[in-house]
Design brief:
alpha/beta, Rossmann fold, globular, 5 strands
């Protein structure tokens, strides 16, 4: 008969200090679910919440990208939507909300620029249940693989 090994494990409470939610302006369904989760955590923990949205310049065709009016118009749309998310988070009860607007490839920009600047200890993002091209949901695996902090993917 072998002797049972005793593990010396104690459950310790784990609390996040700062959250970042990645919003995809082209994928409102998965973004809303992730946003709801992020707001719930930020309110419960009473911690800062960053809301990032990325203008995906790779989605623009050559004519659009060369037209300053098209790029600026798209940037203004995303900024307005980002402001709406910030307002909704505050109405829900999240006290400290920071909007972050950037441009480029979402996964890369979030990992290389936004996370080092904002310094969250948890990134939350949405992911569509069906793969789709150029949506932040498809960048969820990139974030999970390369982010220097924890990542939660909400479906």
């Amino acid at each position: 008969m072998t002797e049972k090994r005793q593990l010396n494990i104690e459950v310790e409470s784990m609390h996040y200090q700062k959250l970042l939610i990645a919003i995809d302006d082209d994928d409102t369904i998965s973004s809303k679910r992730a946003f709801n989760y992020a707001c719930t955590l930020a309110k419960a923990y009473q911690i800062p919440l960053g809301i990032v949205s990325i203008l995906e310049t790779g989605d623009l065709n050559i004519y659009q990208s060369l037209s300053p009016n098209v790029v600026e118009g798209r940037r203004e749309e995303i900024a307005a939507d980002l402001d709406a998310y910030v307002q909704k988070a505050k109405e829900f009860g999240v006290e400290d909300v920071t909007p972050i607007l950037n441009e480029g490839n979402p996964g890369h920009v979030i990992v290389e620029e936004v996370i080092p600047s904002f310094q969250p200890d948890l990134v939350i993002c949405g992911s569509k249940t069906k793969p789709s091209k150029h949506l932040i949901g498809t960048h969820a695996s990139y974030l999970a693989k390369y982010a220097p902090c924890s990542v939660t993917v909400v479906r």
